[in-house]
Amino acid sequence: MTDILDMRNTLLISLVVLLMYSCSNHTEQKVENRKMGEKSIDTLIGKNNITNEISGSAYRKQATEYFVIIEKDSSSFRPIFSESNGSIWLNLNLPYSKPTKNYYQRLSELELILPVAASEYNIDSLKSIFFGRLVLSGDLAILVTQEYKRKFGDRKYIATKDYHQISEFILKESTFVKDLNRILEPYSKQVSGIDIEKVFFTSKDVLLKYSKVSKDTTLIPEKVSCSPTIN
Protein backbone atom coordinates (compact mmCIF):
# COMPACT_ATOMS: atom_id res chain seq x y z
CA MET A 1 0.00 0.00 0.00
CA THR A 2 1.37 3.40 -0.92
CA ASP A 3 2.12 6.20 1.52
CA ILE A 4 -0.85 8.16 0.19
CA LEU A 5 -3.27 5.31 0.83
CA ASP A 6 -1.89 4.85 4.33
CA MET A 7 -2.30 8.52 5.24
CA ARG A 8 -5.23 9.41 7.46
CA ASN A 9 -4.47 13.08 8.01
CA THR A 10 -3.06 15.86 5.93
CA LEU A 11 -1.29 18.73 7.61
CA LEU A 12 -2.74 22.20 7.38
CA ILE A 13 0.05 24.73 7.75
CA SER A 14 0.42 28.45 7.18
CA LEU A 15 3.94 29.27 6.06
CA VAL A 16 6.12 32.32 5.74
CA VAL A 17 9.45 31.74 4.01
CA LEU A 18 12.48 33.72 5.14
CA LEU A 19 15.16 34.28 2.52
CA MET A 20 18.86 35.00 2.54
CA TYR A 21 21.70 35.25 0.06
CA SER A 22 23.36 32.08 -0.94
CA CYS A 23 27.09 32.40 -1.43
CA SER A 24 27.87 34.94 -3.25
CA ASN A 25 -0.51 50.06 -14.58
CA HIS A 26 -1.18 47.06 -16.88
CA THR A 27 1.64 46.21 -19.22
CA GLU A 28 2.85 43.04 -20.86
CA GLN A 29 6.25 41.60 -21.60
CA LYS A 30 7.01 38.69 -23.88
CA VAL A 31 9.11 36.05 -22.16
CA GLU A 32 9.21 33.09 -24.49
CA ASN A 33 7.87 31.48 -27.62
CA ARG A 34 6.83 27.86 -27.21
CA LYS A 35 5.76 25.27 -29.72
CA MET A 36 2.79 23.00 -29.22
CA GLY A 37 2.76 20.58 -32.16
CA GLU A 38 3.19 22.78 -35.22
CA LYS A 39 1.78 25.85 -33.52
CA SER A 40 3.95 28.52 -31.93
CA ILE A 41 2.61 29.81 -28.61
CA ASP A 42 3.56 33.25 -27.29
CA THR A 43 3.86 33.55 -23.53
CA LEU A 44 3.51 37.03 -22.07
CA ILE A 45 3.86 38.38 -18.56
CA GLY A 46 1.23 40.92 -17.60
CA LYS A 47 1.43 43.24 -14.62
CA ASN A 48 -0.74 45.68 -12.69
CA ASN A 49 0.37 48.40 -10.33
CA ILE A 50 -1.83 47.74 -7.28
CA THR A 51 -0.05 49.95 -4.72
CA ASN A 52 -3.28 51.70 -3.76
CA GLU A 53 -5.64 48.78 -4.33
CA ILE A 54 -4.73 46.50 -1.42
CA SER A 55 -4.89 47.05 2.32
CA GLY A 56 -2.10 48.99 4.01
CA SER A 57 -1.46 51.27 1.02
CA ALA A 58 -0.59 54.20 3.31
CA TYR A 59 2.50 52.29 4.44
CA ARG A 60 3.45 50.88 1.06
CA LYS A 61 5.96 52.34 -1.37
CA GLN A 62 4.81 50.22 -4.29
CA ALA A 63 3.17 46.89 -5.14
CA THR A 64 2.88 45.03 -8.43
CA GLU A 65 1.01 41.88 -9.33
CA TYR A 66 2.32 39.74 -12.20
CA PHE A 67 0.56 37.04 -14.19
CA VAL A 68 1.18 34.79 -17.17
CA ILE A 69 -0.78 35.30 -20.39
CA ILE A 70 -0.94 32.48 -22.94
CA GLU A 71 -2.91 33.14 -26.14
CA LYS A 72 -4.82 36.03 -24.50
CA ASP A 73 -5.75 33.81 -21.54
CA SER A 74 -4.66 35.51 -18.30
CA SER A 75 -3.75 33.26 -15.39
CA SER A 76 -5.61 33.55 -12.09
CA PHE A 77 -2.31 33.00 -10.23
CA ARG A 78 -0.96 36.50 -9.48
CA PRO A 79 2.13 36.83 -7.28
CA ILE A 80 2.50 40.28 -5.67
CA PHE A 81 5.87 41.98 -5.10
CA SER A 82 5.76 44.89 -2.67
CA GLU A 83 7.97 47.38 -0.86
CA SER A 84 7.01 49.29 2.28
CA ASN A 85 7.79 52.91 3.04
CA GLY A 86 10.96 53.29 5.07
CA SER A 87 12.06 49.69 4.46
CA ILE A 88 14.77 48.33 2.21
CA TRP A 89 13.16 44.89 2.03
CA LEU A 90 11.14 43.38 -0.79
CA ASN A 91 8.30 40.96 -0.02
CA LEU A 92 6.53 38.42 -2.21
CA ASN A 93 2.96 37.36 -1.54
CA LEU A 94 1.53 34.29 -3.30
CA PRO A 95 -2.16 34.97 -2.64
CA TYR A 96 -4.94 32.46 -2.94
CA SER A 97 -6.62 32.39 -6.32
CA LYS A 98 -9.40 30.34 -7.84
CA PRO A 99 -8.54 26.61 -7.85
CA THR A 100 -7.76 26.56 -11.57
CA LYS A 101 -4.02 25.89 -11.28
CA ASN A 102 -2.29 23.04 -9.49
CA TYR A 103 0.92 23.44 -7.51
CA TYR A 104 3.21 22.50 -10.39
CA GLN A 105 1.54 24.95 -12.76
CA ARG A 106 1.88 27.77 -10.23
CA LEU A 107 5.52 26.95 -9.62
CA SER A 108 6.17 26.99 -13.37
CA GLU A 109 4.41 30.35 -13.76
CA LEU A 110 6.34 31.84 -10.83
CA GLU A 111 9.55 30.76 -12.52
CA LEU A 112 8.50 32.68 -15.66
CA ILE A 113 7.48 35.76 -13.66
CA LEU A 114 10.67 36.07 -11.59
CA PRO A 115 12.96 37.40 -14.39
CA VAL A 116 10.43 40.11 -15.26
CA ALA A 117 9.98 41.12 -11.61
CA ALA A 118 13.76 41.11 -11.20
CA SER A 119 14.06 43.71 -13.97
CA GLU A 120 11.80 46.07 -12.00
CA TYR A 121 12.54 45.23 -8.36
CA ASN A 122 15.77 44.60 -6.51
CA ILE A 123 15.55 40.84 -5.95
CA ASP A 124 18.66 41.08 -3.76
CA SER A 125 16.33 42.69 -1.20
CA LEU A 126 13.75 39.88 -1.28
CA LYS A 127 13.32 39.03 2.38
CA SER A 128 10.18 36.95 2.70
CA ILE A 129 7.55 35.00 0.79
CA PHE A 130 4.06 34.71 2.20
CA PHE A 131 2.65 31.39 1.05
CA GLY A 132 -0.50 31.14 3.10
CA ARG A 133 -2.35 27.95 3.95
CA LEU A 134 -0.79 24.81 2.61
CA VAL A 135 -4.18 23.24 1.89
CA LEU A 136 -4.72 25.76 -0.92
CA SER A 137 -1.71 24.33 -2.77
CA GLY A 138 -3.30 20.95 -3.42
CA ASP A 139 -0.50 18.62 -4.55
CA LEU A 140 2.02 20.29 -2.25
CA ALA A 141 -0.21 19.72 0.79
CA ILE A 142 -0.30 16.02 -0.09
CA LEU A 143 3.48 15.87 -0.56
CA VAL A 144 4.27 17.65 2.70
CA THR A 145 1.81 15.43 4.55
CA GLN A 146 3.53 12.33 3.19
CA GLU A 147 6.93 13.68 4.17
CA TYR A 148 5.66 14.70 7.60
CA LYS A 149 4.22 11.26 8.32
CA ARG A 150 7.42 9.51 7.24
CA LYS A 151 9.33 11.77 9.64
CA PHE A 152 7.00 11.96 12.65
CA GLY A 153 4.52 9.11 12.26
CA ASP A 154 0.76 9.31 12.66
CA ARG A 155 0.39 12.09 15.21
CA LYS A 156 -3.19 13.05 15.94
CA TYR A 157 -2.39 16.32 17.70
CA ILE A 158 0.40 18.85 17.18
CA ALA A 159 1.27 21.06 20.14
CA THR A 160 2.56 24.61 19.73
CA LYS A 161 5.84 23.54 21.33
CA ASP A 162 6.41 21.23 18.33
CA TYR A 163 6.19 24.02 15.73
CA HIS A 164 9.92 24.72 15.76
CA GLN A 165 10.69 21.07 15.08
CA ILE A 166 8.20 21.02 12.20
CA SER A 167 9.53 24.26 10.70
CA GLU A 168 13.07 22.80 10.78
CA PHE A 169 11.79 19.65 9.07
CA ILE A 170 10.11 21.69 6.31
CA LEU A 171 13.22 23.85 5.89
CA LYS A 172 15.71 20.98 5.67
CA GLU A 173 13.77 18.06 4.24
CA SER A 174 10.65 19.14 2.34
CA THR A 175 10.08 19.08 -1.41
CA PHE A 176 8.59 22.56 -1.05
CA VAL A 177 11.84 24.23 0.07
CA LYS A 178 13.82 22.28 -2.54
CA ASP A 179 11.48 23.63 -5.23
CA LEU A 180 11.81 27.20 -3.96
CA ASN A 181 15.58 27.01 -3.75
CA ARG A 182 15.76 25.69 -7.30
CA ILE A 183 13.83 28.59 -8.85
CA LEU A 184 15.58 31.17 -6.63
CA GLU A 185 19.08 29.90 -7.37
CA PRO A 186 19.58 32.17 -10.44
CA TYR A 187 19.09 35.16 -8.09
CA SER A 188 21.55 33.88 -5.46
CA LYS A 189 18.78 33.43 -2.91
CA GLN A 190 17.82 30.51 -0.73
CA VAL A 191 15.32 29.76 2.00
CA SER A 192 16.85 30.31 5.44
CA GLY A 193 13.83 29.85 7.68
CA ILE A 194 10.18 28.86 7.91
CA ASP A 195 7.76 30.76 10.13
CA ILE A 196 4.74 28.62 10.98
CA GLU A 197 1.59 30.35 12.20
CA LYS A 198 -0.49 27.27 12.86
CA VAL A 199 -0.45 23.52 12.16
CA PHE A 200 -3.53 21.33 12.05
CA PHE A 201 -5.29 18.77 9.88
CA THR A 202 -8.17 19.17 7.48
CA SER A 203 -10.30 16.86 5.36
CA LYS A 204 -9.90 15.60 1.83
CA ASP A 205 -13.18 17.35 0.94
CA VAL A 206 -11.78 20.73 1.99
CA LEU A 207 -8.61 20.12 -0.05
CA LEU A 208 -10.63 19.35 -3.18
CA LYS A 209 -12.97 22.30 -2.63
CA TYR A 210 -10.26 24.95 -2.35
CA SER A 211 -7.43 23.61 -4.53
CA LYS A 212 -6.67 21.80 -7.76
CA VAL A 213 -4.68 18.58 -7.69
CA SER A 214 -2.98 16.68 -10.48
CA LYS A 215 -3.10 13.34 -8.64
CA ASP A 216 -5.78 10.68 -8.87
CA THR A 217 -8.34 12.00 -6.38
CA THR A 218 -9.13 8.48 -5.18
CA LEU A 219 -5.59 8.30 -3.76
CA ILE A 220 -5.84 11.49 -1.69
CA PRO A 221 -5.93 10.83 2.07
CA GLU A 222 -9.10 11.58 3.96
CA LYS A 223 -7.23 14.06 6.16
CA VAL A 224 -4.57 16.45 4.90
CA SER A 225 -2.10 18.98 6.33
CA CYS A 226 -3.42 22.43 5.69
CA SER A 227 -1.99 25.29 7.60
CA PRO A 228 1.68 26.52 7.26
CA THR A 229 2.24 30.19 6.40
CA ILE A 230 5.70 30.66 4.94
CA ASN A 231 7.80 33.78 5.38
Structural class comes to alpha+beta
The helix/strand order is HEEEEEEEHEHHHEEHE
Strand residue percentage: 35-45%
Low-confidence stretches: 1-14, 21-26, 34-40
Number of distinct helices: 6
For the sheet with most strands, the description reads: 11 strands, mixed
Mean pLDDT over the full residue set: 76
How many beta strands in the DSSP annotation?
11
Shape: globular
* Number of separate structural domains: 1
Q: Rg, please?
A: 18 Å
Determine the N-to-C terminus distance: 35 Å
Helix content: 25-40%
Keywords:
eleven-stranded mixed β-sheet; disordered N terminus; alpha+beta; 27% helix; 11 strands
Task: Describe this structure as you would to a colleague.
It is a single chain. The relative contact order is 0.26. This protein has 231 residues and is of the alpha+beta class. The model is unreliable at 1-14, 21-26 and 34-40 (pLDDT under 50). Helix 3 crosses helix 4 and helix 4 crosses helix 5. A hairpin with a 2-residue loop joins strand 2 (27-36) and strand 3. It has one domain (3-230). It is 27% helix and 35% strand.
Can you lay out the helices and strands and say which pair or pack?
Elements: H1 3-6, E1 10-21, E2 27-36, E3 39-49, E4 60-70, E5 73-74, E6 80-84, E7 90-93, H2 103-118, E8 126-133, H3 139-152, H4 163-173, H5 175-184, E9 189-194, E10 199-203, H6 204-210, E11 223-230
Parallel strand pairs: 1-11, 7-8
Antiparallel strand pairs: 1-8, 1-9, 1-10, 2-3, 3-4, 4-5, 4-6, 6-7, 10-11
